[in-house]
Amino acid sequence: MSAKTMRVIPYVEDHRNCLLFKPSEDLTENQMASLQAALKQAIQAYYQLEDDELAAEPLPNTNNRRLILFYEAAEGGAGVLRQLISDREAFPAVARKALEICHFDPDTGEDLLRATGASEDCEAACYDCLMSYGNQRDHRLLDRKSIRELLLSYYKSTTSSSPGPDPRAEHLRRLLNQAGSELEKRWLQFIDERNLNLPDKAQHLFEPCKTRPDFLYEEHYVFVYIDGPVHTYPDRKQRDREQTECLEDMGYTVIRFGDLDEWEGIVSKFPHVFGITK
Ligand SMILES: [Zn+2]
Questions:
Q1: I need a surface site. Which of 35, 77, 91, 233 has the fewest CB within 10 A?
Q2: What is the predicted pLDDT for the residue at 274?
């Protein structure tokens, strides 16, 4: 997501999917409570979840709302929080849903004042938008108008993910510093420009195979080598093949990037690793 507006940290613990939502600007108590209710309702609506399937809590606590923790109530849930990050269309779509739920026209931002079919205008919040029986303690804080601008900006945002807890730009900077060659840097930029998934690590020594592949996608057990045209020499090819075999025997997938004009085709073959190119 755009670094300007927020930072989102997904992680998995006890097989329950969680997502920490941290707006990058300081928001008021009313805004944080309203955002929590709006996003919870919108995520549920977008992914067709029941109210009890998704939980949302302020962190560190209700008196100090800095972050919103979303988690799927059931272990091994539907995995929607992960999709919210990996599917780049999802978060803007959820923000659009949240605008609709809050009685705003998502395209113009116009205040439609009430839900379709409702008999009265909604001033701050009603049971058609932010109020639910589960968030009664927050009712006094809820104000749909306080988050209109935020939701509109989220609706226009693009999602970019980082494999670790650091924001994407910081993670990229570290990878660029660790990269072993100009070509590797160029490859990182190639990945970043397309908003594809960045690797977790660069130059990670893999002792069992006596090799230091250029990049590692830890979760997918994928090692990436940026060979460039130089590796077409026969002796290099032989060594490359041995390393690949060793890594594959250890259960890893090896993806090699040779000539630059082939890079695009290679990433599109592994959408589960690199994400989808637009
Ligand atoms: Zn309402």
A1: 233
A2: 92
CA of 142 to the centre of ligand 1 (A): 10
Structural contact between residues 138 and 33, judged by C-beta atoms closer than 8 angstroms? yes
pTM assigned to the model: 0.73
What is the residue extent of each domain of the chain? 6-155, 168-274
**Residues 220, 5, 219: CA angle, nearest 5 degrees:** 5
Q: What is the mean pLDDT of the chain?
A: 89
Looking at residue 45, its amino acid is A
Query: Yes or no: is domain 168-274 CATH 3.30.160?
Result: no
**49 C-alpha to ligand 1 centroid (Å):** 20
Give me the half-sphere count of Cα atoms (radius 13 Å) on the Cβ side of residue 262.
10
pLDDT, tens digit (0-9, with 9 covering 90-100), for 62-96: 999 999 999 988 766 668 888 888 888 899 999 99
Average pLDDT over residues 196-225: 93
Sign of CA dihedral 196, 201, 206, 211: positive
- Between the CA of 123 and the centroid of ligand 1 the distance, in Å, is 7
CA 58 to CA 84: how far, in whole Å?
A: 19
Torsion angles phi and psi, residue 49, rounded to 5 = -100, 155
Cα-to-centroid distance, 115 and ligand 1 (Å): 7
Say which CATH topology domain 6-155 has.
Answer: Gyrase A; domain 2 (3.30.1360)
Domains 6-155 and 168-274 share a fold: no
% residues pLDDT > 70 (the chain): 91
Residue with tokens 């996608």: 217
- CA–CA separation, 96 vs 90, rounded Å? 10
